[in-house]
Amino acid sequence: METVYVRRLRKHYGELCALDDVSFDVARGEVFGLVGPKGSGKTTAMEILQGRRARCGGEVLVLGVDPAVAARVHRERIGVVPQETDHDGMCTPRELVRYRAATCARPRPVDEVLEMVGLAGKRDVRIETLSLGEQRCVDLAVALIGAPELLLLDEPTTAFDPASRRNVGAVMEELGARGTTVVLTTNRVAEARQFADRVGVLAAGKMIAVGAPDELADRSGSERRIIRFSLPEHVPGCDLPDAGHLLTIGLDRIVELRSARPTRDLEWLNRWAKERDVLLEDLTLAPPTFEDAYLELIGQA
Ligand SMILES: Nc1ncnc2c1ncn2[C@@H]1O[C@H](COP(=O)(O)OP(=O)(O)OP(=O)(O)O)[C@@H](O)[C@H]1O
Ligand SMILES: [Mg+2]
After folding, report:
1. N or C end: fewer C-beta atoms under 10 angstroms in the chain?
2. Is the pLDDT of residue 224 over 90?
3. Ligand 1 in contact with 43 (CB < 6 A)?
4. What is the C-alpha to C-alpha distance for residues 290 and 301, in angstroms, rounded to an integer?
5. Which residues have CB atoms below 5 A from the ion given as ligand 2?
6. Domain identity same for 92 and 223
7. 43 CA distance to ligand 1 centroid (A)?
8. Which atom of ligand 1 is the closest one to the Cα of 41?
9. In angstroms, what is the span from residue 39 Cα to ligand 2's centroid?
10. Ligand 1 pocket test: which of 43, 56, 155, 183 has the largest number of ligand atoms within 8 Å of its C-beta?
11. What is residue 257's predicted lDDT score, i.e. its pLDDT?
């Protein structure tokens, strides 16, 4: 049986449809990433899985139980990092995690958990003196202490630096190997690709794609290539030729062209550059990545 089973989930806030016919499954031991722009319904979905928010329709089973009617013993099988937390800043990570441990049936050793999240060196300082990223590690420790079967992490890496992000990735991998299931949300696409075995892409309350990041990249068009180069400072963006197919330029002056016929497109691009004496710096040609696929999906939605 799936650890998380969601079918045709709907949630309205008054007139606003926050989740519209959302379906996905998460298997035991899997890390599943819910990825989407702000306001796309990620937190709403996570709160429904936790049983903290009522749904308007659809079927939801978490560890085989409908979260809307789950008892406390069921909730203890789930570790949660909410998007926003409010700690008592006067207590220390060790005190807080120890207190939570006392409410669990089979807690992990407190110091082991603090070590796991990289807080061993700061376990006895007041939480209010910790950085925001370190406070997020306290949240993660609280979620892990009960040795949950399922972790629901809503933007767990806000305020993280790349090193702590890598550490959380390693923790999730280890937990996954031991059979713990993880559902996490993020609006960072690179992070979803890095952490998740499979992702679900939410846009304006609709699940527009579900699959492994590489699979979604392939689906986005194995016949197509992304041509990229940086446009020199002295060339205005409006000088770029009208390619007629998805030519975009970012603030960083990186120009991207999605091409079904890369050889032909490189040819005219070169001709254009030669005529204007423009150097196509850092020119690359590559298959679409998951990030490319994501941006395209979100764009279409
Ligand atoms: N309690 C609420 N009452 C009314 N509308 C709400 C409520 N909670 C969320 N919404 C709306 O529902 C939509 C989805 O919100 P949600 O918080 O689930 O998005 P999200 O994907 O988690 O966004 P973010 O990335 O910013 O955290 C938004 O348009 C939001 O304004
Ligand atoms: Mg959210």
Report:
1. N
2. no
3. yes
4. 16
5. 42-43, 83
6. no
7. 7
8. 18
9. 7
10. 43
11. 86
Q: Identify whether residues 275 and 181 lie together within a single domain.
A: no
- If asked whether residues 37 and 168 sit together in one domain, one would say yes
**CA–CA dist 285, 289 (Å, integer):** 12
The structure tokens listed for 214 are 């590489």
Handedness of CA 254, 258, 261, 264 (dihedral sign): negative
Residue 41 Cβ inside 6 Å of ligand 1? The answer reads: yes
pLDDT band at 255 (very low <50, low <70, confident <90, very high): confident
Same domain? For 129 and 147 the reply is: yes
pLDDT tens digits for 226-252? Answer: 899 998 888 887 777 766 666 777 778
Tens digits of residue pLDDT in 25-57: 999 999 999 999 999 999 999 999 999 999 999
Distance from the CA of 38 to the center of ligand 1, in angstroms? 8
Which atom in ligand 1 lies closest to the alpha carbon of residue 19? Answer: 14
- CA nearest 195: which of 224, 230, 227, 171? 171
Give the number of domains in the chain: 2
Question: What percent of the chain stands above pLDDT 90?
Answer: 61
**CATH code at position 13:** 3.40.50.300
* Beta-sheet strands, E only, within the chain: 4-13, 16-26, 31-35, 57-62, 78-81, 150-154, 181-186, 198-203, 206-211, 225-230, 247-249, 254-259, 281-286
Residue 144 in contact with residue 108, Cβ under 8 Å? yes
Cβ–ligand 1 contact at 18 (below 6 Å): yes
* Whether residue 102 is found in the same domain as residue 132: yes
